[in-house]
Sequence to fold (113 residues):
Amino acid sequence: MSKLKKISEAMIQRAVMDYLQWFSNSHKLYFFRSGAGHIKTEQGHYFKSGRPGCPDLSCIYKGTYYGVELKGPKGRQSALQKQAEDEIVAASGKYFIVRSLEDIKKIFPMDKA
Fold:
């Protein structure tokens, strides 16, 4: 029996980002990484970026905001991520948890015009 290689969130992110870049070449899609975290400066200091709980990717397609949270196969939303989802949906945006390349293709299928 062969062991399947564990798919990491970073691998999913790379595949999703590549697909969105490809998709945006033929569709009017705007996207960027928007996750929160800490950034280290050249001087060794840290500063916070983003809003805690915000989705990993922000996309705008046909006038609608899409928050995309990337998770590995067993990843779970934090309480702040659930709160961000509720706020995005309440503001008429869409929110998705994406665990694979297939998931993002269902949200932004190539035949979608």
Summary: DSSP finds three helices and six strands in the chain.
